[in-house]
Amino acid sequence: MIVLGIETSCDETSAAIVENGTLRSNVTAAQLDHARFGGVVPELASRAHQRLIVPVVQQALDTAGVRPNDLDGIAAVNGPGLAGALLVGLSFGKALAFATGKPFIAVNHMEGHLASNLLEDPRPEYPFLNLTVSGGHTQLVLVRSLHDVTVLGETIDDAAGEAFDKVAKMLGLEYPGGPAVDRRAARGNASAVVFPRPGLDRADDSFSFSGLKTSVLYYLREQAYDPTTASESFIADVCASFQAAVIDVLVGKLFRAAARERVRAVSIAGGVSANRGLRQRAQHVADTQGVRLCMPRMEFCTDNGAMIAMAGYLRLMARHTSSFEISIEPNRSLTRV
Ligand code: KG4
Ligand code: ZN
Q1: Whose CA is nearest to atom 26 of ligand 1?
Q2: How many whole angstroms from 127 Cα to the centroid of ligand 1?
Q3: Do the strands 22-30 and 12-19 form a parallel or antiparallel pair, or are they unpaired?
């Protein structure tokens, strides 16, 4: 069974081939044009997807040594994500499926992030508890199987990645903000500033990061912060202190829910799971508590075609294919199929 997966939900144009559950190729073109605007510009993103989709898919096929007629299914993301960006990948995927007479599978982007854990060896055993932390989502998901999931909690305001991006912007750091904060945090003192740990004391599984972001803003105002004159060490300390607060909340809530749900394996996925501080801390807690922790390798944390090809492959195996009538769903939720 050979499946092509296409990801175009935000600013990465990516395509991959999965054959019988094994990754054969993964090609990602990150759109760097957004950097000078300090964030993803939706219209730029869709134009770049249009420009990149053919060469990216071609390269994914070539690297795997696969021709379009060898495919058993074609999967593309149809939501959640940016409408114009989703349209490019979905239309391309449907057109290729129609032209080759192959089944088409519309994949939920969040299910794709869950599937990124299944690209690794060994895979987490079901049931496992996954924390998806990306630019648009913060979700704690109980995964009984990839097609039987329960969202235990989500963010009620900003996503974790969004908080990283906004704090980076306040500090005047380069785009994208997450990796910029991560790099500086590694050199800073995490106890330099005490920021709040929002929601850590609440028993439920929801998250909230907007208060933390505001605390950083107030602190910078109090210190009359000026990016042109601030010292490297001041910036590193703010990054480390902010990052430590986010990590405390994420790791605290993940492992508390894991104990309550009595799962033996947990996983972290999404762009923020590339954060080195988060990975180290989660590994430490997992080792202490005797829980198995799975994390996708760095290239599968941020958006990628491999996770879509894997999710598509598993849907195809379960005979969950989509009609050509299916459209984009920018607000698609994880639990509604
Ligand atoms: O999963 P993703 O590529 O796209 C979405 O589906 O949103 O996640 C992108 C998010 C951005 O907010 C980015 O700043 C964040 O992931 N990110 C990081 C790191 N690398 C990417 N956040 C913290 N530390 C990182 N190393
Ligand atoms: Zn994503």
Answers
A1: 275
A2: 26
A3: antiparallel
Residue at 89: amino acid letter: G
What is the number of the ligand closest to the CA of 250?
1
Pocket of ligand 1 (CB under 6 A): 10, 134-136, 161, 164-165, 176-179, 182, 270-272, 274-275, 302-303
Q: Which of 107, 206, 98, 105 is nearest to 158 (CA)?
A: 206
Phi, psi of 117 (to 5 degrees): -70, -25
**DSSP annotation of 296:** -
As a whole number of angstroms, the distance between CA 24 and CA 2 comes to: 9
Is the pLDDT reported for residue 119 higher than 70?
yes
- Ligand 1 atom nearest to 277, measured from its CA: 24
Least Cα distance to 138 among 191, 90, 178 occurs for 178
For 148-164, what is each residue's pLDDT tens digit?
Answer: 999 999 999 999 999 99
- Residues 307 and 113: beta-carbon distance below 8 Å: yes
Instruction: Indicate the DSSP class of residue 332.
Output: -
Q: Whose CA is nearest to atom 11 of ligand 1?
A: 135
Ligand 2 center from residue 296 Cα (angstroms): 13
Distance CA 234, CA 256 (A): 33
* pLDDT 10s digits, 231-254: 999 999 999 999 999 999 999 999
